[in-house]
Amino acid sequence: MSARPRWRDMFASLKVPNYRLYATGQIVSTTAQGMQRIAQDWIVLQLSGNVADVGITVALQFAPMLVFGLYGGVIADRYPKRRILQLTQSVMALLAATMAVLIITGAIHVWMIWCIALVGGFATLVDNPARQSFVSEVVGPTLLRNALSLNSSTFQLGALIGPALGGVLLSAIGGGWSFGVNAIACLGTVFALSRMDGSKLLPAPPAPRHKGQLREGLAYAARKDEILFTLIVLTSVALFIYTMPVLLTAFADHVYRVGSTGYGIFNALVALGALSGALLSTRRVSISLRTVIGGAIALGIVQALAGLAPQLAVFGVLLVGAGLAQLLYFIASNSLVQMSTNIAIRGRVMGVFVLIQLGGQSIGGPVMGSIVDAYGPHVGMTISGAVPLATALVAGLVLIKRRGQTVSSVVRGALHPRRV
């Protein structure tokens, strides 16, 4: 962009009727998902008493993505994305309803939660790359950046309200009702998708069937620095920072002893910062690898400082900062990858992106849970920020050398950026 967007253009994508339907469904869906996630993590912790078991739950949710994630991108490129989303949301509604019945009737056990989390992971495997690339079909290339920022804003608005409501509901009447609400919300998303005007969508041509489609997506990602280095840094962030729910259960239960309501508030504080970051991202003039790597450095610093927080109030402020930094980083990395990718192969490249983003959590969840059980929540939180910080610094130095630049020239460029 040649100039910073005007404040009145912050919500430009909402002028598109189909996107209004999509965004409304996102707010409802993510609010309900936030309620369900709070209930699920807390119920597992109360049933087993081990933070590592919460990590296993996270791992099972994302394990299908880790093993089969690239196939989700192939499916997203090959079939109509709106149909895919309607199918996956219907499956998620059925799983949430099953969990609600099991919890409300008192028949729930940890292994049941693990089984349902694993099945839900297979639905997520297809849902996420389709959802990521569907936004461009709804708004077109001109409004894509704005729509990606607003998409994250709606997601974080739901994530802000959901954990707070989920914590209250969990304390008042139990976690089963949160799953019931999510089942209804998933069906609401299916309804919103069905109400879209198909003639106004801009679908990408379906990818023809041929051998080597997975390799084609990987080779495309490896050829471009903007994609390759973004994915390298994302791997570290996904493994250590995106496991925040595992860490927050430990802080709520073992450190500050604020119970399920406090756990919901912790998540809401992260979402409050994330919502602010998503809105601020609509004002960005440009996005580059420097933006992504610099964002990861800032995120690692804030996350590590949260692990060293001396008291609850400071910890809460740093959670807001972590949420802000996390969303600014995520939107920058997501936008850079999408805008650097040809639309015909975008589903497969976003499949790699989502594979790392969600699949990394399947490894990071139990790893961070084990670290917390062995060394305590403060050490776990500090490590979760320090490792991505080191990764981003190394990636930045490698990129500087690869492009024949110097650190001083990059610093000067960061202080006096060109608007492109």
From TrEMBL:
<protein>
    <submittedName>
        <fullName>MFS transporter</fullName>
    </submittedName>
</protein>
<keyword id="KW-0813">Transport</keyword>
<feature type="transmembrane region" description="Helical">
    <location>
        <begin position="312"/>
        <end position="331"/>
    </location>
</feature>
<feature type="transmembrane region" description="Helical">
    <location>
        <begin position="378"/>
        <end position="400"/>
    </location>
</feature>
<feature type="transmembrane region" description="Helical">
    <location>
        <begin position="287"/>
        <end position="306"/>
    </location>
</feature>
<feature type="transmembrane region" description="Helical">
    <location>
        <begin position="160"/>
        <end position="193"/>
    </location>
</feature>
<dbReference type="Pfam" id="PF05977">
    <property type="entry name" value="MFS_3"/>
</dbReference>
<keyword id="KW-0472">Membrane</keyword>
<dbReference type="InterPro" id="IPR036259">
    <property type="entry name" value="MFS_trans_sf"/>
</dbReference>
<feature type="transmembrane region" description="Helical">
    <location>
        <begin position="352"/>
        <end position="372"/>
    </location>
</feature>
<dbReference type="InterPro" id="IPR020846">
    <property type="entry name" value="MFS_dom"/>
</dbReference>
<feature type="transmembrane region" description="Helical">
    <location>
        <begin position="263"/>
        <end position="280"/>
    </location>
</feature>
<feature type="transmembrane region" description="Helical">
    <location>
        <begin position="227"/>
        <end position="251"/>
    </location>
</feature>
<keyword id="KW-1003">Cell membrane</keyword>
<feature type="transmembrane region" description="Helical">
    <location>
        <begin position="94"/>
        <end position="123"/>
    </location>
</feature>
<keyword id="KW-0812">Transmembrane</keyword>
<keyword id="KW-1133">Transmembrane helix</keyword>
<feature type="domain" description="Major facilitator superfamily (MFS) profile">
    <location>
        <begin position="18"/>
        <end position="403"/>
    </location>
</feature>
<dbReference type="InterPro" id="IPR010290">
    <property type="entry name" value="TM_effector"/>
</dbReference>
